[in-house]
Please model this.
Amino acid sequence: MHFIINENPLITFGITVCFSIVIFFVIRLLLCLLYKKTLMKWGTFQSYIEKLRSKGLPYYAKYGLIGLVIFVALPIPGTGVYGATILSWLLNIKWSLSLLAILPGAIISNGIIVLAAFGIVQGIS
Model:
C-alpha cells in the first residue's frame, strides 16, 4: 500500500471506492441472511427491530437519501459505508436506493481521506 500512496492518488482513491462498494454488498447480504435465517425467529429481536425502524423512519422521511449521503460522507467514526449500510437495512430501504446514496457519500469521504493522507505524506516528505 505504501507504494500505491507514494505513486498515484487516483489509484488509491479508486481502490478505496471499490472496497466501499464491496463492503456495502457483503454487509447487506450478511444482514439479510442472518436476519432471515436466525434473528427473525426471535420475537424479542423482531419487536426491537420494529421499534428501531419506527424511530428512524421520521428522520428518513425528513432527510431522505441526501441525509444518508451526508451520513456516509462525514469521515468520523461510526459513519461511513458500514454504518450507513446497517442503517439503510434497519430502515428497510431498498438496496438499490441505499447504494445510490452510499456510493456518492463514499466517494466524498474517501476523497477527503485520500487527500488528507497525501497531504500528510507530502508534508512529511
User: Anything to note?
Assistant: The first helix runs from residue 2 to 7.
